[in-house]
Structure prediction request, 216 residues.
Amino acid sequence: MEDSVEIILQDGSSRFSHPTQDKPVVTAASGAVLIGLYGLWTVFALPGFRKVPKSLKVPYLPSSRTQTRNVLKLLRSRSGCLADLGSGDGRLVFAASSLGFQCTGFEINSILIGYARVRALWMGVPTSTARFVNKDFWKTNLSGYKNVTVFLAPGVMEVLARKLMEELADDSRVIACRFPFPDWPVAASEGHGLDRAWAYDMATVRRLARQPPIAC
Ligand SMILES: C[S@@+](CC[C@H](N)C(=O)[O-])C[C@H]1O[C@@H](n2cnc3c(N)ncnc32)[C@H](O)[C@@H]1O
Prediction:
């Protein structure tokens, strides 16, 4: 009887033991992969951020093709200089430059800037249509741009709204991806869910900002 109980216990413990307990190599390999992925993420997503205040830090996350297509739709009937704030690997800059815009991508991550510049050279895109500047856009005056595109983070949109209100001309258009400006009147929008993009015309944004608040 005792023997059979022991057999049952032994059998049970082997059946319910965690699969990786028996496979230390698998556990070690998974750990190494996770650490490697975290290392890659910090190398590609974070360099250059030391001087940016913590509340304004935005990591790299590439936009989808649908998102880029939605931005291009909102740029229809527009022309001139375009600034992409946080240009990442340059995908939006390349797409907009193919429509005839003179684009500048501002990017704080020097690895992504290097990648975008090499890609521009490889594709034969001249710097007159696609320029990549390794600069903090918070410290850049954007008054020369008639078109501004942003794919950043919800926490920075209010601060960015104040900066753009101060610097952009009335005939400028701002396009925000995924995260809209909290209080700005929307001129048009394209797409749904994570790929949605919103367009704002500065003249309308300013007109609304000048209106006195409605008394209750
Ligand atoms: C969400 S990603 C968007 C990348 C790209 N626009 C796209 O659509 O694929 C935000 C980018 O902004 C960059 N960034 C964040 N803060 C910045 C700053 N102050 N100046 C310049 N670039 C910044 C990040 O390094 C990152 O590449």
